[in-house]
Amino acid sequence: MDFLEYSSINAESKGSMSSGRIKMTDQNIVFKHDKTGKVEQLNAGDIELVNYMKTVGSYGIRVFMKNGALHRFFGFKDDEQKIADFFKKNYKLDMLEKELSYRGWNWGTAAFNGSVLSFNIEKKTAFEIPLSNVSQCQTGKNEVTLEFHQNDDAPVGLMEMRFHIPTSETAESDPVEGFYNNVMDQASVISVSGDAIAIFREIHCLTPRGRYDIKVFQSFFQLHGKTFDYKIPISTVLRLFLLPHKDNRQMFFVISLDPPIKQGQTRYHFLVLLFNMEDETSIELPFTEEELKDKYENKLEKELSGPVYEVLGKIMKVIVNRKLTGPGNFIGHSGTPAVGCSYKAAAGYLYPLERGFIYVHKPPIHIRFEEIASVNFARSGGSTRSFDFEIELKSGNVYTFSSIEKEEYGKLYDFISSKKLAIKNTGKNDKQSYRDDFGDSDAENEHDAYLEKVKAEAKDRDSDDGSDDDESTDEDFNPNEAESDVAEEYDSNAQSSSSDSEGGGASDDSEKRRKKEKKQERKEKEKKRKEKSEKSSSKPKKSKNKDSDAPKRPTTAFMLWLNESREQIKKENPGISVTEIAKKGGEMWKELKDKSKWEGKAAKAKEEYNEAMKEYKAKGGGSSKGEGGGEKRKKEHKTPTKSPGGSGFKSKEYISDDDSSDESEKESKKKKAKKDKSEDESESGDDSE
Fold this sequence. Notes:
- The chain is of the alpha+beta class and 689 residues long.
- Helices cover 30% and strands 31% of the residues.
- The chain contains 14 helices and 31 strands.
- Helix 10 packs across helix 11 and helix 10 (557-572) packs across helix 12.
- The longest helix is centred in the last third of the chain and has 34 residues, at 505-538.
- It is elongated.
- The N and C termini lie far apart (130 Å).
């Protein structure tokens, strides 16, 4: 089939440009909006003429329909002749240039052609106004004022335009009145005229909140409340949704609008109506049988009865000419198509549909599958009873639906997989259970290469430095000991001196003496602890000296396999980091069934290491450093050695490999004894004086 397709094309709508994709076939022209997903279709048989128009940097095409409607598309580059040949071949239409006037005059001739008001200067068009954009028209003595529908997407909005129409005495009719009538025939003026097709009383509306009477007319429907009234054109209805509540006793009826209705600065892109399933109604439509057949193709019956939501859905579906979307094939853990969750601290329901997701209701959100870049399952605030479901769009926006029950995980995961959406936190081997994605990372059978490396390094440090006894414990706080200060302070059996007997003077003195001694002991303990902490903080840390001649430790079976498989992992996962390679390798090693090849290589490497170590020690290696030195230090530290001047143990700084340490210790003891003796003699001399 012959067709043309272009992306990044802009469609003009109420003064703004809406980007999208256009496709021209021999049957129709289809334009799909990128933002809303709305599809506009122009049948080839309804096209009256086509023009191309020059614009800045590109050109556009102007499609004029037989019903008077005008459609303009911009952004085409160098395919002017190609498009002209396509229209000539398939639509039998010549694509001529639309000549525009570039004069800066503000006077000219008004020409009405279908639903388009063209302002011409010297028979060339200065500007065109689609009358469907006109919301109101007012007349004065010699002028006509046009008011336009506001478009929130337009950077600059045209609110009104005034035309001065000179009068002529020779004219048979009033030109002002004629101008007004031509505008009003095609203008989209919302005015309540005639009887409503159907009226629904006191409908519970969640967005905007309140109870409203819904009146459906031919070209619009009205929400009439106690405070506000909303008149909504049928043409602004984008989609209709009928979704059952999770309690199976209520029904949501959701109407998607583009452009949205507004109240002050608030915009409502969705109308959310809530119905009880038990409420029923009966309505007789004000149409004859011929009108129902010709206008609505027998899609409506003259008398409708049933649940309120069902009757409203049927009427809106036919009047708006939109499909009524219901829930898809997804059924959650609770047996309903709704998943309970929260969005921005507001509780609601997420409905997985056949072509997207919709969240009801605060605020309502509709996400199409084609907008989604990836989804992600994440732990919900550290809790294992629920999880978060994150949706990242191609535009960069992220929607997070939190506090979903973990029982919904399997159902939701299967649904996502069936729709072939990219899942962020799973690799090639998809995980099918909640435990796999959110279980503890230190499972018994899970191989973590990084964790094993850390454990091995810690083991090496313990073998070399395990003899350090520098850590001090808090000896004061021991409430279970009888001599503890804390135990004494909180002793429930302690008695005050006021309860002692009168003859207890000696016991009072002994009690005071005992307290004084304890206080002195406490001070001495504190002093020793301070000295010890100062000494340990001032000690320089010894760096661990490695012997370069010592044999290299053997490689494990896992590391042998990983070194050989590293390039393959990189090839299968482009852009993977070093840490992720180790993690991915751990998962693949865990799933590897036959490990005998690598385990055999590891065992052989270990035997070679043991043989090399024996030869190394036999040659005297490791006597002062490396592994042998570590063992020697370890043995020496098993026997506590008194320091030269106190009751503490020797630290590593005072232990050497030669025997000179014993002699220096004896000399220091002799010096101390002489010093103590001289001090005693001096004290005895002072006493004799």
